[in-house]
User: Which sequence fits this backbone?
């Protein structure tokens, strides 16, 4: 005789005994999708009598907001005679709704004819809560990273201004004073060797000014704030070509959407990092940067003809440059894609969206 948790249609007590001892909630249904069996863990969980849950009564314990989708997936699977997995909230005996994963599979009788389904439910509430906490932790880390990035860019801009405005101006003033001093010393018949040393000092100041300009530009390119994203990228490409000899051209409509300052900076830094990676690792001879924009978004694509990467290299957790680009893109809600094949170069593409209705600006 079967336990009270089963229906009389089941053949034998052994299955019911085994099902009642299982650590999961087990159910069975007939060929018409009516549930005919619930094991003891199911009945203990719901706290409702077997008679109240048989047929379709079991779904009364499903959360009202999940019930329609749950039953639609359940009945569709029955119709198609295929296995299914449904996630929904099920009311526990204490009235608390718990998240469960319900998996079902079709079964056949001894004659091979479809006889219904057998399924099992697992309470995954603790897992979902852990996932929610993890997502919140990740969100907090991203917010912290965003604040850090903003503070870092602000500090870079401040240091760049100090280098350019204060140190640069001081060096210019010193150079002018020395330049004015040379004619006076010549009139006084000063040793020509001393004059040569002064001229050499002026040359050293010229070198120092160029160093200050390069440092200030690397910290925060003035073009990014005064001329816009497209112009800053073009100047960066030209500088790279002069410095490395790699052919670097900029194509596209050179339009950018009205990105906010944080987005603009992030896109520029992604381009910088992509170009740095090409110089360091790609052994490329040519780079093409495509800049295209609409009222809604800005797309920048960096393509090189270098050695390329395989899948393992692109997924390498120690590839700081690639990780940095992905993180910057995520912080501004941009889409970043990196495609590469050994011997066929690499393409880095970033698409950043602006607010709807913004008009594109030519930079």
Assistant:
């Amino acid at each position: 005789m079967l336990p009270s948790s089963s229906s009389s249609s089941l053949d034998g007590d052994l299955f019911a005994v085994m099902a009642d001892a299982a650590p999961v909630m087990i159910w069975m249904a007939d060929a018409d999708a009516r549930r005919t069996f619930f094991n003891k863990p199911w009945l203990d969980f719901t706290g409702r009598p077997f008679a109240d849950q048989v047929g379709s009564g079991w779904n009364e314990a499903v959360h009202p907001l999940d019930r329609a989708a749950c039953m639609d997936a359940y009945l569709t699977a029955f119709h198609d005679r295929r296995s299914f997995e449904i996630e929904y909230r099920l009311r526990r005996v204490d009235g608390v709704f718990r998240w469960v994963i319900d998996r079902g599979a079709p079964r056949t009788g001894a004659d091979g004819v479809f006889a219904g389904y057998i399924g099992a439910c697992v309470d995954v509430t603790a897992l979902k809560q852990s996932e929610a906490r993890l997502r919140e932790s990740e969100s907090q880390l991203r917010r912290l990273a965003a604040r850090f990035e903003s503070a870092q860019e602000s500090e870079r801009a401040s240091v760049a201004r100090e280098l350019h405005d204060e140190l640069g101006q001081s060096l210019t003033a010193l150079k002018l004073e020395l330049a004015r001093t040379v004619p006076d010393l010549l009139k006084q018949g000063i040793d020509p060797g001393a004059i040569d040393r002064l001229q050499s000092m002026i040359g050293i100041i010229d070198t120092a000014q160029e160093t200050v300009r390069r440092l200030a530009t690397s910290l925060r390119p003035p073009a990014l704030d005064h001329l816009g994203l497209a112009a800053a990228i073009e100047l960066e490409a030209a500088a790279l070509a002069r410095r490395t000899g790699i052919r670097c051209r900029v194509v596209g409509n050179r339009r950018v959407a009205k990105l906010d300052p944080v987005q603009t900076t992030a896109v520029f830094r992604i381009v910088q990092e992509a170009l740095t990676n090409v110089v360091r690792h790609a052994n490329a001879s040519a780079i093409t940067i495509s800049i295209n924009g609409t009222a809604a978004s800005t797309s920048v694509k960096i393509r090189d003809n270098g050695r390329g990467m395989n899948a393992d290299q692109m997924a390498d957790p120690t590839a700081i440059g690639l990780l940095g680009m992905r993180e910057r893109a995520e912080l501004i809600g941009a889409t970043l894609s990196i495609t590469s094949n050994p011997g066929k170069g690499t393409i880095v593409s970033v698409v950043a969206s602006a607010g709807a209705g913004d008009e594109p600006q030519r930079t």
